[in-house]
Amino acid sequence: MRTSPAIWLAACLLQANLVFSDLVGFGLHPFKIYCASACQWALQAYPLECSEKIPKGFLGWATTSSECKANDTAWLTTLAWCLHVKCRAHRMSELQAFWETDATRDMTNFGNTGTPVPPKWSYEESLQQITEPPRKMPVDTTTVLNFTALVPEIEYQAQLNTALGVTKEQETGAEYGVIILVTGFGIPIILTWLYHLPFTSGLLSKITPYLTQPSSIGTYSVRSLPFLLGNAPTIGQAAYIAVFFIINIVLMSVNYQSMQPHLYYPGESMEIKAYIFYRTGIAAYALLPLLILFASRNNVLLLWLTNWSHATYLLLHRWVARLFVLHALVHSFLALPIFLPQQAVVDSDYWAWGVAATVLCVAILFASVLPLRRWSYEIFLVTHIVLSVILVVGLWYHVVLWIGLDSYGYETWIYAACAVWFFDRAARVGKVLKNGVRRSKVTDLGNGYIRVDIPRASFANDGPGLHVYAYFPTLSLWRPWENHPFSIVPTSLMSRVERQRPEQSSGSSSPTAKESGVHINVHDVEKHHGFKDTASASLETGITLLIKKSMGITKHLKATDGLLTLMDGPYHNTSTREIRHCDRLLLIGGGIGITSLLPWIASHPNIKLFWSVKESARCLVEEVQGVLSEIEKDVRIGRRLDISRLLEQEAEVGYCNIGVVVSGPGGLCDDVRAAVAAVGKKGSTSFELDVDAYSW
Q: Where is the Ferric oxidoreductase domain (predicted)?
């Protein structure tokens, strides 16, 4: 039973609430009372009689243990007096609570979460030890604090500004990180659900030829741009990318506030640079869950919450990755002028991990360019996964070694990203185990075409638009994990006995004239002449894969009756709801692309197939001719289709809406996309387009 999208959305929102509660400013607050923390920090610079060494290092703090502070009279009385003077706005109970949990905390390493030793006196008892107001201040940070002292005002103010300024920026960065993540996740859901509202569907169908169907750059979409620069997004995809980039740029550019004097960053310019440094780092971490989600097979957006295709999410994955790298580079370049003069920081482990993470994300970006993916997709995939895992490890140590856990919640973004990744991988393993081990029959059709029949697949008759990732572990002992996506055809459909009736294997069939605006009941299957739903046929419930050998594992496929096969799936290429409800369905294929079109034959009563193949693929035509015997078709061997003309002819018939499913080479898919958008702009017929392309 298919789970309701509303349930999945509620589950996602609940999980998001749990994740966000561990972020600074949401459920995490590193400073309970700012004035009290400023007092504590200002005093930390001065050694006590029990301190281990003279102050040195980046913060200029003495190394003083919690046990030392808990039993040192000067520390307790000086800190108590500072709280008494600077924190008058807070109740005694609040100050006592701070005193019990933080008064003796070891602040040598910022973010230290160790349990402090309880002080020998309470806050009120420490105040009682002071017989008269202190008047003396430490001379400098070499002065041993062995008397009740006044905290220097400039030191206190610098510490207060530092605590307030840095924490406020961390809270703003976390808030903006949540906005970035929710925006990237939420836009596809909102746009999908808007499409189904009764008062918006008509408007959206009119703007489809202008927004979602045409490419943003010429007719390039599945085909690569010149010089293998990548794939151009559609106008709709480009709009999402532009909006997402603009939101990120705006959020990285607004709401900065300088608070001088500042302990870490003297001067307003240096302070603002540091805050941009913080915010871009947080933004990069916030993008990590979205980055992994868009690349996942088991993407909750793809499977349950939206009607966007897997190809769309993969394209967006690449653009989110570019934005991730941009944030990382800005973060890293700003770190140079801020921290290079501080040798203690440069020599630290967290600095080294940060440098490594930046280098890794740039390396991953360049190792993912289209020429390398085409040269060897398997090498790209393994390298991509390994480097990505190392990158996440680097990001983890970069934060933990710098700030510790539960300080500002940076690690929360990594938890969310890992949860997305492990969910996807666990779901893959679960699907493989559910489908079980199969022994497939492999038939060589000739000229590099292979038929693979996999028995007893429970999802064989689940409808069109499905594919599985097939594993053939015994074909290559060195790469048993290698798998490839294949469109599935029910074996029952392939086993149909061809009916004795005239058929056209080439040439065009004229559509029956219909009055303008007529609708066809797509569920009234019995009224369609010669049509029979094979899902109800009592035939074997297996699936068939039609494969053209390539450079990957498929080149090792040979005729056999018992090939070990594992399956991860099935997965939907995209939502089929809109296509199923069209008055007319056109299937346009090229070569081996017929595989994803065949299941549609049993899913709609008013279909016409247009299929163009090379002469070398005649064996493929002969293999499926029984399936095509009962439908209207135009099959051309060695000849191209006139896409624009055939779409115009169909539109002239007068259908209200026509569904177009195209599968084949990139050139064919892009031609169909451009033609559908062009014809849709001209007349009253609306078109629903589903592009099922095979490309890298």
A: 280-394
